[in-house]
Amino acid sequence: MEKSGTEQTSNKPTIWQQIVEKKVAFFNTIYGKILTIICQIFVGGLFIFSGFIKLNDPVGFSFKLTDYFAEDVLNLPSLVPYALWLAVFLVILEVILGVMILLSLFKKPVLWSLLGLIVFFTFLTFYSAYFNKVTDCGCFGDFWKLTPWESFTKDIILLVAILILFIGMKHIKPIFSKKINIGIAVVSLIACIFFGRHVLNHLPVFDFRPYKIGANIPDGMIVPPDAPKPIIEYTWVFDVNGEDVEVVTTDVSQPQVEGGVYKDLKSEIIDEGYEPPIHDFIIESPEEGDVTDRMLEEEKIIMVIMYRLEKAEEAGLFKVKEFTDKALAAGYKVIGLSASDAQELQDLADLMQFNFNFYLTDPITLKTIVRSNPGIIKVEKGTITDKKHYNDFDTIKL
Fold this sequence. Notes:
Elements: H1 5-11, H2 15-26, H3 30-55, H4 58-69, H5 83-103, H6 107-131, H7 148-167, H8 178-201, H9 217-220, E1 231-240, E2 243-249, E3 260-271, E4 284-285, E5 289-290, H10 292-296, E6 301-306, H11 314-329, E7 333-338, H12 342-352, E8 357-360, H13 363-369, E9 375-380, E10 383-389
Parallel strand pairs: 6-7, 7-8
Antiparallel strand pairs: 1-2, 1-3, 4-5, 6-9, 9-10
GO cellular component, one term: membrane
Organism: Kordia periserrulae
Keywords: Membrane, Transmembrane, Transmembrane helix
């Protein structure tokens, strides 16, 4: 007895089933195996690289997490006190998962962990890009700055690569025996822990910031005459006979609209143009105003960095007193830079008997200069010749 047309149609694979079958068939070929291995190397290598770059500067990554936890972004202020330890955990996890996928060790749970991480990071980068809340995701620290949309695109590519690894999982084969692979993973974990501990108690081993040793601060603030200018789009709103009329210009001068009464003005940055590496370094005195140029002309000057007094390490304050007294005796000019309240700074100076004055500087700038609170930089005619964590003040040569 012949089957009806309806029964024959119901047994026919759907379009999606046919697509899946073709993809599965593809991964049974040598080309599917090659694609899987390429994705394995790509995902593992990129996770190791990205994690190590951030592990080199976990304090900087914690600042980025704090930005995400802010009330006007993810509204998770309760996580701010744990930002540093979350940063350390995430970057070590990133490195170890990268190592394990390269070794094909515990591939199924590792792949699920990689998928969870990349979904989390993709959400963050999309949020940054779409809502323009955090303009730098910190994916590669200060080594490689990506725009929010570039970061999101990078995460989408990684997400696709990880999904390919799921499909071609059977091609992910161990390189060595299981014992050797576990040994390599454990050694990698121990190395990450010791490296992280070192940079937290000293400073990043590799400094990719514009305030690295050897950088000249005035030179870093120069804008070349032929540098691209920022492009800003202005949207003017006028009331014309009771209706809103918008006029878009790239000039801040108000346009003329016949019969129109000005109501509102909105602006949007289309292209930020050229921004010098150092664009926000200003030293201000409550009495004298901007004294940046004068300080950067000093032959020998020690700058004590305390971006916020309430976050400064007490042990470091005593080391500041000991070192700055030596620096003053050696003929150095010494100043303090902070973003804290002027009266609080004066109270601290009186309590610790500091023999130098504090000046005001933007807190983000200070956190960028040195990853220590307090920290010290030695400057000669505007050039940074040394910078130290408070644990290493005694190694600065005067």
